[in-house]
Amino acid sequence: MRKLAFSLFTAIFILFGFSMDVQAAEDSIDDQASLFTSQEITQLKEAIVPIEAKTKARVFIVTNTDNDIDSKRFADYYMLDRIGKDTNGITFYLDMNQRKFIISTSGNMIDYLDDKRINKTLDEIEPSMIAGNYFQAAQSFLNNTSHYFDQGVPGGHYRVDTETGKITRYKSLTKTEIIIAFLAAMLLSGIFFAVSISKYQLKFGTYKYPFREKSSLNLTSRNDVLINSFVTTRRIPRNNSSGGGSGGGSSTNSTGGGTFGGGGRSF
User: Fold this and answer.
1) Which residues contact residue 223 at a Cβ distance below 8 angstroms, ignoring those fewer than 6 apart?
2) Which of 88-92, 184-188, 196-200 has the lowest mean pLDDT?
3) Which of 3, 132, 182, 261 is buried most deeply by CB count within 10 Å?
4) How many Cβ atoms are within 10 Å of 22's Cβ, its own excluded?
């Protein structure tokens, strides 16, 4: 009876989880410009489901014909309205009014898709955009997003705030490093424990420290005053034509109080 109940619970959990993924992907395509057929929208949604499942990030494809603000800011604000501030997400925005295509990243997707990877993705998308094959462009976007997430965050990765020049370095531990650190901590803890027990059991002799002769107490009064503190930053200008800064990092900007990465091109 317990096995049957457990099996039913597992099946319900899997079905519920799958339905949640499908439901999440249902609102991932916002084709206001009517660039995709209904069949193409279905295919894109099906491709988004496994990407959202493994990245734990929302994926959006947005098109319109009436935007009159900066295309990158529009994409940032769109994602900000949909998922909130600094939440994992990535948006592919096709601005048919200003003839631009934009990739906007938020949360951990800023780190997975750094400037180099954004530029490579834009390179692959550009021919399809120029040819008017918007479905193929969207497919290239999804394929690259999935591919680069599977590769992980690039080594030595950092973020550069294009407004302040502040650099934030990314540090992650590999599974091997975590295991080694854990074993080393366990070994050192064991040695410390064994030595402490041995001392308390007087296995190292009966030596007694002459605390009365060796100890002293001196009290002084001291006032510390902080004069100045400095934070050194390096300004790295944003390359607007290619949508990214120097290689190895992710150029970021602030929109509506949230942090976003990404870039774009004209077509």
Assistant:
1) none
2) 196-200
3) 261
4) 14
Predicted confidence (pLDDT) per residue in 160-175, tens digit: 999 999 999 876 555 5
Q: Which residue has the tokens 């531990």?
A: 173
Q: CA dist 6 to 3, 12, 27, 48, 127, Å?
A: 5, 10, 33, 30, 52
Backbone phi, psi, residue 244, to 5°: -165, 165
Distances (CA, A) of 109 to 91, 146, 152, 167: 10, 11, 10, 17
Q: State the pTM of this model.
A: 0.68
Q: Mention every residue, 6+ apart, whose C-beta is less than 8 A from residue 130.
A: 267
Cα 144 to Cα 122: distance, rounded to the nearest angstrom: 10
155: alpha, beta or left? (left if phi > 0; alpha if psi -120 to 50): beta
Give the range among 76-85, 129-138, 187-196 with minimum mean pLDDT: 187-196
* Token reading at 77: 């604000």
- Residue 40's CB is within 10 A of a number of other CB atoms, namely 17
d(CA 167, CA 48): 32
Residue 211 belongs to what H/E stretch?
helix 211-214
For 190, residues 6+ apart whose C-beta sits below 8 A from its C-beta are none
SS3 267: coil
Among 67-71, 172-176, 210-214, 241-245, which is the least confidently predicted range? 241-245
Whether 101 contacts 124, CB under 8 Å: no
| pLDDT tens, position by position, 20-60 | 455 557 899 999 999 999 999 999 999 999 999 999 999 99
Element (H or E) spanning 5, and its range? helix 2-26
